[in-house]
C-alpha cells in the first residue's frame, strides 16, 4: 500500500511538473509587453521628471512621483521585462549571464581573485524593469542604525542619521504577506542556528533567520511593490530598451540639465538617436557602475581624466567614480553526516518538492537557500563582520563556475565534493560588514554601449583581511559548537596549491584552527564579491545632502552610488528608503514652487 501510494505521488509529481513547464512556457511566450510605452510620435516631448534606470531606486521613485506629482514622468530603462522564471526564487542564479544581466567583469584584481580566470570578478547587474532587485537573492535587511549615524558623524551629513531614516526604512519594508521568513524548524540547519543563539547569548552576536521579498513562493520585488500599481497612470510613460548616452547641459542662467540624448536599436540592430527635454528634474538611478559612467561620458567628473579621454569638460566633479565599495566573501563548504534536508539532487527531484511549491509556494523552490545569518557589530572595538549560512549540499560545478569565473582547480578545492549530487551540507560565508578597501569606476571611452572599467580593489586594505579572519574564526566556533553537533559537520578546508605552504595540514581538519597566513591566502585566491556596489557618487562629495548633483541644480542621483559607506547588510532596502526620501523632497519642492506662483 505504501509503495503504491509513493508511486502515485511520483506520477502526480511528473504530471504537475509537465503542466508547470507548459504554463511557464505559455506565460513567457504570451506575456504582455511593457505597458504605457512612449510612442514614436511622442519622442520629441518634454517631461517634467526624467528618471534614468528602472531598478530599485528608479522603480520606487517613479511610483511616488506618478502617484503624487502634478507633473509628467518618464522612466527610461535600458532593458525590457524580466521573464516569468525570474520570479521563481531558486532559479535566480540561472538569470546571471542572460539577457537581463549586464554581465560586467572587473578589471584584473591586484590584491585578490588569484583563483579566478584573469583575476577578474563577475559583477552581475540587472538589466530590465526592476534592475538588480529582479536579479538579487531577495534578502531583506531592516537597516542598522549606526550605519546612518556614521554618515552624520564621519561625513558631516546631519540630515542622514538613523533618527531621520528610521521611518523611511520602515516604509521600505513590504507588509505581510509580501515577505517570507524562514521558519525555525525549516531544517536541521535552522534548528542548529536556533540552539546556537541560546548557547552564545553571552556574545554580542545578532542571530537572524532570513527574511525574503517573496510572496506566495514568488519574488516580490520593487516592480510588484511599487511600479506595477502605477504603471497605467496617465502622467507616466515608460521607455524600455533605450540607452541614455549623454546629458545635455546649459550654462545660462546657471548650470542645469536641459535634455538627454538616447539611443534605441531597431530590429536590424541599427541605432536611432533622439532627445528628451527635461523640464524640472533629471534623476539618475542607473546604479553604482553606470550612473558615474553616464556622468563622465557627459563631461562631468575629474578634469584630467576626462581630457585624457578627449571628452569635453562641462563640469568639474573630481570624485565621480571614486569611493567604490563592496562586501567581500570567503565561502567554506561544510559537509553533514545527517539528512538536512539541504539543496541537492535528491531534494530537488523529490516529487513532494514540486508539489509543495505549486500548492503553497513553500519548500526549497520557494526561497534561495540562504537560511540565516549571524552578525557582530564590533561591540568590543573590532570591525563588524557577518556570517551567512547557505543550505546547499551539492554545488553544481558548471553552474557556479560560469557565474563566478573560478578556475577549475580553485572551484574543486573550495567544493571538494562537487561530484556528489546527493551530498548533504551547507556553505558558511564570512565577510567584513564595513570594509575599508575602496575602488573606482572609470571609462575606456565615452561610448555608453562600452562597459565601464570597474575596479573593486578588494582586500587592498589590510584591515579587511583581519576582519574577515575574525569572521571565519567565529564561523568555525559556531560550526564546532554543541548546537551543531547533531549535524556531524566537517569543514572542508580548501587545498589550494598556491597556499600549500600555509595549510591545510592534517591537524587543521581536526582542530579547525589553521593559521592566519593560510586564511589570508585563501581569501586572496577564492574570495568573491557580494554584488553590493556603492559609493561612486557619494553623499557629501558628489551629491549634496538632498542628493542633488553638486553644481548642477536640477540633477539628482537616487541609487546605491550615493552611499558614502557600506551598508552592514544587504543594501537593497536602504536604496528603497533613500528613494522614498528623495521623492518627499521632490514633491515638497514641487508644492513650494506651486505656492510661489
Automatic annotation (TrEMBL):
GO molecular function annotations of the record: flavin adenine dinucleotide binding; oxidoreductase activity, acting on CH-OH group of donors
Cofactor list: FAD
So where does this one cross the membrane?
7-30
Boundaries of every Glucose-methanol-choline oxidoreductase N-terminal domain copy: 287-301
Family designation: Belongs to the GMC oxidoreductase family.
| Cited Pfam families | GMC_oxred_C, GMC_oxred_N
Instruction: Supply the Gene3D superfamilies for this chain.
Output: FAD/NAD(P)-binding domain (3.50.50.60), Glucose Oxidase, domain 3 (3.30.560.10)
Which keywords accompany this UniProt record?
A: FAD, Flavoprotein, Membrane, Transmembrane, Transmembrane helix
The name this protein goes by in its record: Neither inactivation nor afterpotential protein G
| Residues binding FAD | 244
Record the organism: Drosophila mauritiana
Amino acid at each position: 500500500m505504501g509503495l503504491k501510494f509513493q508511486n502515485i505521488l511520483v506520477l502526480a509529481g511528473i504530471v504537475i511538473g509537465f503542466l508547470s513547464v507548459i504554463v511557464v512556457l505559455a506565460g513567457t511566450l504570451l506575456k504582455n509587453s511593457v505597458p504605457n510605452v512612449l510612442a514614436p510620435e511622442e519622442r520629441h516631448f518634454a517631461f517634467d521628471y526624467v528618471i534614468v534606470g528602472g531598478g530599485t531606486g528608479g522603480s520606487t521613485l517613479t511610483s511616488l512621483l506618478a502617484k503624487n506629482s502634478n507633473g509628467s514622468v518618464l522612466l527610461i530603462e535600458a532593458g525590457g521585462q524580466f521573464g516569468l522564471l525570474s520570479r521563481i526564487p531558486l532559479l535566480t542564479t540561472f538569470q546571471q549571464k542572460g539577457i537581463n544581466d549586464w554581465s560586467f567583469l572587473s578589471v584584473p584584481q591586484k590584491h585578490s581573485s588569484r583563483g579566478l580566470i584573469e583575476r577578474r570578478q563577475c559583477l552581475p547587474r540587472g538589466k530590465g524593469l526592476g534592475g538588480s532587485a529582479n536579479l538579487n537573492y531577495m534578502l531583506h535587511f531592516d537597516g542598522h542604525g549606526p550605519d546612518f549615524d556614521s554618515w552624520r558623524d564621519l561625513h558631516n551629513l546631519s540630515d542622514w542619521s538613523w533618527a531621520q531614516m528610521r521611518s523611511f526604512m520602515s516604509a521600505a519594508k513590504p507588509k505581510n504577506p509580501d515577505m517570507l521568513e524562514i521558519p525555525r524548524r525549516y531544517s536541521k540547519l535552522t534548528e542548529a542556528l536556533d540552539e546556537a543563539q541560546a548557547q552564545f547569548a553571552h556574545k554580542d552576536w545578532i542571530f537572524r533567520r532570513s527574511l525574503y521579498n517573496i510572496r506566495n513562493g514568488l519574488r516580490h520585488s520593487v516592480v510588484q511593490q511599487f511600479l506595477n500599481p502605477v504603471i497605467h497612470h496617465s502622467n507616466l510613460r515608460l521607455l524600455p530598451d533605450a540607452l541614455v548616452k549623454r546629458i545635455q547641459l546649459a550654462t545660462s542662467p546657471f548650470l542645469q540639465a536641459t535634455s538627454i540624448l538616447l539611443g534605441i536599436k531597431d530590429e536590424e540592430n541599427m541605432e536611432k538617436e533622439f532627445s528628451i527635454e527635461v523640464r524640472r528634474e533629471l534623476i539618475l538611478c542607473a546604479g553604482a557602475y553606470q550612473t558615474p559612467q553616464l556622468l563622465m561620458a557627459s563631461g562631468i567628473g575629474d578634469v584630467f581624466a576626462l581630457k585624457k579621454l578627449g571628452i569635453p569638460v562641462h563640469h568639474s566633479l573630481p570624485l565621480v567614480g571614486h569611493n567604490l565599495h563592496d562586501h567581500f566573501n570567503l565561502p567554506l563548504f561544510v559537509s553533514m553526516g545527517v539528512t538536512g534536508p539541504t539543496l541537492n539532487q535528491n531534494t530537488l527531484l523529490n516529487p513532494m518538492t514540486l508539489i509543495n511549491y505549486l500548492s503553497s509556494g513553500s519548500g526549497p523552490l520557494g526561497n534561495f537557500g540562504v537560511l540565516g545569518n549571524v552578525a557582530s557589530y564590533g561591540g568590543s572595538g573590532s570591525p563588524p563582520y557577518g556570517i551567512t549560512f547557505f543550505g546547499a549540499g551539492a554545488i553544481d560545478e558548471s553552474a557556479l563556475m560560469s557565474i563566478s569565473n573560478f578556475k577549475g582547480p580553485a572551484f574543486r578545492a573550495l567544493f571538494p565534493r562537487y561530484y556528489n549530487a546527493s551530498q548533504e551540507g551547507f556553505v558558511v560565508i564570512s565577510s567584513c560588514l564595513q570594509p575599508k578597501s575602496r575602488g573606482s569606476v572609470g571609462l575606456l571611452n565615452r561610448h555608453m554601449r562600452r562597459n565601464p572599467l570597474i575596479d573593486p580593489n578588494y582586500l587592498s586594505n589590510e584591515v579587511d583581511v583581519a576582519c574577515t579572519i575574525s569572521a571565519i574564526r567565529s564561523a568555525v566556533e559556531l560550526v564546532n559548537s554543541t548546537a551543531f553537533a547533531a549535524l556531524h559537520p566537517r569543514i572542508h578546508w580548501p587545498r589550494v596549491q598556491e597556499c600549500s605552504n600555509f595549510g591545510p595540514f592534517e591537524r587543521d581538519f581536526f582542530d579547525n584552527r589553521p593559521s592566519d597566513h593560510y586564511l589570508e591566502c585563501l581569501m586572496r585566491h577564492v574570495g568573491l564579491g557580494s554584488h553590493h556596489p556603492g559609493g561612486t557618487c557619494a553623499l557629501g562629495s558628489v551629491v549634496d545632502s538632498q542628493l542633488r548633483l553638486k553644481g548642477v541644480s536640477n540633477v539628482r542621483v537616487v541609487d546605491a552610488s550615493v552611499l558614502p559607506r557600506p551598508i552592514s547588510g544587504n543594501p537593497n532596502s536602504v536604496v528603497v528608503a533613500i528613494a522614498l526620501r528623495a521623492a518627499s523632497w521632490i514633491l515638497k519642492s514641487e508644492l513650494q514652487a506651486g505656492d510661489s506662483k
